[in-house]
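Supplementary Text 2. Reproducibility record for the structural model of the 146-residue chain.

All settings were left at their defaults, and a single model was retained for analysis rather than an ensemble. We include the record here because the model underlies the residue-level annotations in Supplementary Table 4.
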Amino acid sequence: MITIKTLPDTQLSCILSSVLPHNKEHLLILGFIADNKLILLTGNLKQIAVPLDIFKPSGTCSPDFDKFELIDYGHTIQFGEYEASSDVVFKSCDHNLECPFCAFPATIDSRGEIYCSNSHESCVFQPRAKNLEEWNSICGLRSSEV
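Retained model, structure tokens:
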């Protein structure tokens, strides 16, 4: 069973009502764990998926993934006593993915698959990939090569 976690209500409403969009992209407001990945939503409603193995033990403290929480106005990820800055997530992935064929934003679903989110279907190709490595290889192609 997947349990979705959000920031505490007061912190969540503060971020969502903020008029500073440049700050929202670096704040985490919602997340859940599925298939050994942490799926997150930023304050500007962008999806990010990262493998759990980016969270390494620190000293005597190891992450307890059953105790996942978002705290500190979206700046911190907590797994029990283990805490990690949200910067760990942003540095470990490229969350500004675009479809190489229509430049529409790509979306990462709950399984970690990446796909063109162009719902108007004006993207003829609409690529889909099982992981970031596969997506990057698709993005290396020019539309004339497909």
